[in-house]
């Protein structure tokens, strides 16, 4: 079974915490233990797991990505979003989270972030759970 989460971004670049939504799906499916795959089917967005407690962390990560790939830097790609493609590749398009005891097995400070690099848009995240029990 594949579930589709819908994520609406409200800025060109943003990290959107989707941990609670993923957790809700895991609980609704009654999964006690297993593996949860999250996959972003976009070329200018990605997904990552990092600190959710201090919002400065996502701002710092976005700030560094902007330094690595400035919006205008003489790119060949003519669509005007070459930087978005580069940032999406750096971050990656999938993560795996273990499910144990009916919950996502994340570290105390970890959150799952949908990473928007060419918003605002309505985006998708595919979620597949492999049940162990
Ligand atoms: Zn493009």
Kindly describe this structure.
The protein has one domain (2-131): YjbQ-like (Jelly Rolls, Sandwich). It has 3 helices and 8 strands. A 5-stranded antiparallel beta sheet has the order 1-8-3-5-6, covered by helices on one side. Helix content is 26%, strand content 38%. The chain is elongated and about 50 Å long. The chain is α+β, with helices and mostly antiparallel strands. The longest helix has 14 residues, at 55-68.
CATH class: Mainly Beta
Provide the list of bound ligands, each named once.
Answer: zinc ion
| Widest beta sheet: strand line-up | 1-8-3-5-6
The fraction of residues assigned to DSSP E strands is 35-45%
State the distance separating the first and last CA atoms: 15 Å
CATH fold group: Jelly Rolls
Which residues form runs of ≥5 with pLDDT under 50?
none
CATH superfamily: YjbQ-like
Note the main sheet.
5 strands, antiparallel
Number of helices: 3
Question: What Rg is obtained from the alpha carbons, in whole angstroms?
Answer: 16 Å
Order of helical and strand elements: EEHEEHHEEEE
The CATH architecture is Sandwich
Structural class: alpha+beta
Q: How many beta-strand segments? A: 8
Form type:
elongated
Name the helicity range.
25-40%
Number of domains as seen in the coordinates: 1
Please tell me the overall pLDDT: 97
